[in-house]
Design brief:
mainly alpha
């Protein structure tokens, strides 16, 4: 066996391991996220005491002695209100349109299509579940910002997870350096977490609404990214052949 063949062997083994392990990891990740969502949804639907204790305890922990006054100075409250807008429909739609234009200029049609599916699909799923569960918004504390829809799951948490995580995955996939990929994914996760926490702080969602939104949004983003990655890899192989 030649030296070049020996050098190539670890790379071949690594590529084989990735092909075998990555689909399994994706499947396990999807299963875990969906199971977590089902568990939360089941307890919310049945109205069990443990969930009620958790929701009420965390909401009151983020308030002063006055239920209408969130902890922290006024400027912090305003900053959190600005952060929560990152998960609003208008901001997410704007980011999605900009990203779609960018992908279209690069002629990355599969990625553009799956980004659109990720955002529109998450919106449809969120609204459908809100109508099905019909859970009222928290009435224990004052709402710092206005709301119009039902509470479970959190649309802001779910849509920000679906949109930002999908965008982050596509952007990271285009980077060769591992450090850049990690930074992009980390930034996407951070924005998603901040948006969800802001909904609880502002008193417009029960904590379990946000947890369910994160789980389902992340599962949907993972599924869309996995299918898009598989199709684009298949296309590249066809072109190369």
């Amino acid at each position: 066996m030649t030296r070049s063949a020996l050098k190539m062997q670890p790379k071949i083994l690594l590529a084989w391991a990735r092909q075998e392990i990555v689909p399994i990891a994706i499947f396990l990740g999807l299963a875990a996220l969906l199971l977590a969502f089902v568990e939360i949804a089941d307890e919310v639907f049945e109205g069990e005491g443990e969930v009620d204790w958790f929701d009420r305890g965390l909401l009151f922990a983020l308030r002063t002695a006055d239920p209408a006054d969130p902890i922290g100075p006024r400027w912090f409250e305003l900053a959190v209100a600005d952060i929560t807008a990152l998960g609003g429909f208008a901001v997410l739609a704007l980011f999605t349109l900009i990203a779609l234009g960018y992908l279209a200029m690069l002629r990355k049609w599969p990625e553009a299509g799956f980004l659109l599916i990720a955002t529109l699909g998450a919106t449809a799923i969120s609204e459908g579940l809100k109508a099905m569960f019909a859970r009222a918004r928290p009435d224990l504390v004052a709402h710092v910002v206005e709301t119009t829809s039902m509470s479970f799951p959190s649309g802001h948490a779910m849509l920000s997870a679906a949109t930002y995580l999908t965008l982050g995955a596509f952007l990271a996939h285009a980077q060769e350096k591992r450090r850049l990929r990690g930074y992009i994914i980390g930034a996407a996760i951070l924005i998603t977490l901040l948006v969800g926490v802001s909904r609880i702080y502002l008193g417009v969602h029960w904590p379990t609404d946000v947890l369910a939104g994160w789980c389902l949004g992340a599962a949907w983003a993972l599924l869309c990214w996995a299918v898009a990655a598989w199709l684009t890899r298949k296309d590249r192989r066809t072109i190369a052949a």
